[in-house]
Write a structure and sequence with these properties.
The chain is α+β, with helices and mostly antiparallel strands. It has a single domain, classed as Endonuclease/exonuclease/phosphatase (Deoxyribonuclease I, Chain A), CATH 3.60.10.10. Helices cover 22% and strands 27% of the residues. The protein contains six helices and 14 strands. A hairpin with a 4-residue loop joins strand 6 (91-97) and strand 7. The longest helix is centred in the middle third of the chain and has 22 residues, at 119-140. The protein is globular. The protein starts with a strand and ends with a strand. It binds one DNA strand through residues 9-10, 12-13, 34, 36-37, 60-63, 112, 114, 152, 165, 206-211, 249-250. InterPro entries: AP_endonuc_1, AP_endonuclease_F1_CS, Endo/exonu/phosph_ase_sf, Endo/exonuclease/phosphatase, ExoIII-like. Its EC number is 3.1.11.2. Mg(2+) binds at residues 7, 34, 150, 152, 250-251. One of its GO terms (biological process) is DNA repair.
Length: 260
DNA sequence: ATGTCTAGAGCATCTAGA
C-alpha cells in the first residue's frame, strides 16, 4: 500500500498538477492539506476520474484537508478532538483496509504558529497537545495508525538548510521541537528519518527569495507511525522533483510504502 | 532576507495567511 501526503496549496490552483500526479504516480491513498476550498467546491472529477473516492474537510478561503483513496475509507471523522470552539479545518481520520490489515490514517495540517510568541503560537502548542492526546488514545486502543501531513515542525537541525534562521520561528522554536518529541516519544516512528539519517532532505521551499534554486529548504511534512505500522514499513521517500515542475506547490509529496 | 503565491471580496486592487 502506497500512501502519499501532499500540501497542495490550493486544490483549484493545483488542479492539473494533482490530476497528473494521481494518474502517473497513482498512490493508493493521497492525504492532502491546504485544499483552500469548501467541501462543495472541491473539484471532485479530478480524483474521481482517476478512480479515487474523496473525503474532504474544508472551509472557506484557507486550511482544509482531504483523504483520497482507491479503496473504501471507513469510519471517517472530521476535526481534532479536544476543543469544541476550534472551527479550523485541519484534521481528518479514516480507516483503509489493505490485503494484510487495516490502518487508521490521520491527515493533519498543523497550525503554522507565526508570529511567535503570540496567540497564533499558543494555538499551535495547544493543537499539538490535543494531537498528543489523540495519539495516546489510539495507542491505548492498539489501533494500527499513522499521522501524516504538514506538521509545520522542523524536527532538528538536519531538517533545514539554514537551521539558525528558524531558531526563533514557530516552526523551529525549542518549545515546538519539544512538543514534537513528546509525540514521537510515545512510541511513534518518524518514517523518513528512520530510513534516512542524513541531513539535507526537505519537503518545503518558500516561493520567496529563490529558495528552490538555492535549495534553501525545510523538512516539515511527515509520517508518524504506530509500532505495528512501523513494522510494516517498506520505504519512505520525498518526491523532490515535483518542486521543479510548472506551477508547483511550495511543498512536495512524501511517500510511505507499507507491506499492508 | 526575501525579488511569492492563493483565495476572497468584488470589479481594481486590496487583505489575510503562509
Amino acid at each position: 500500500m502506497k500512501i502519499a501526503t501532499f500540501n497542495v496549496n490550493g486544490i483549484k490552483a493545483r488542479y492539473l498538477t494533482v490530476a497528473d500526479w494521481l494518474r502517473e504516480d497513482a498512490p493508493d491513498v493521497a492525504v492532502l492539506q491546504e485544499i483552500k476550498s469548501v467541501d462543495e467546491a472541491f473539484p471532485r472529477d479530478l480524483a474521481e476520474d482517476a478512480g479515487y473516492e474523496i473525503h474532504t474537510h474544508g472551509q472557506k478561503g484557507f486550511n482544509g484537508v482531504a483523504i483520497l483513496s482507491k479503496t473504501a475509507v471507513e469510519d471517517v471523522t472530521r476535526g481534532l478532538p479536544g476543543d469544541d470552539e476550534d472551527e479550523q479545518a485541519r484534521y481528518i481520520e479514516g480507516t483503509v483496509i489493505g490485503d494484510r490489515g487495516a490502518v487508521r490514517i490521520c491527515g493533519l495540517y498543523l497550525p503554522n504558529g507565526n508570529p511567535a510568541p503570540g496567540p497564533k503560537y499558543d494555538y499551535k502548542l495547544a493543537w499539538m497537545a490535543r494531537l498528543e492526546v489523540r495519539a495516546r488514545q489510539l495507542l491505548a486502543e492498539e489501533v494500527p495508525f499513522l499521522m501524516t501531513g504538514d506538521f509545520n515542525v522542523i524536527p532538528d537541525d538536519r531538517d533545514a538548510t539554514r537551521p539558525k534562521a528558524w531558531e526563533d520561528d514557530a516552526l523551529g522554536l525549542p518549545q515546538t521541537r519539544a512538543a514534537w518529541r513528546r509525540l514521537v516519544n510515545l512510541g511513534l516512528t518518524d518514517a523518513f528519518r528512520a530510513r534516512t539519517p542524513a541531513a539535507g532532505h526537505y519537503s518545503f521551499w518558500d516561493y520567496q527569495g529563490n529558495a528552490w534554486d538555492r535549495n534553501d529548504g525545510i523538512r516539515i511534512d511527515h509520517f508518524l507511525l504506530s509500532p505495528a505500522v512501523a513494522d510494516a514499513m517498506r520505504d519512505c521517500t520525498i518526491q523532490t522533483e515535483m518542486r521543479g515542475r510548472e506551477k508547483p506547490s511550495d511543498h512536495v509529496p512524501v511517500w510511505l510504502d507499507l507491506d499492508l
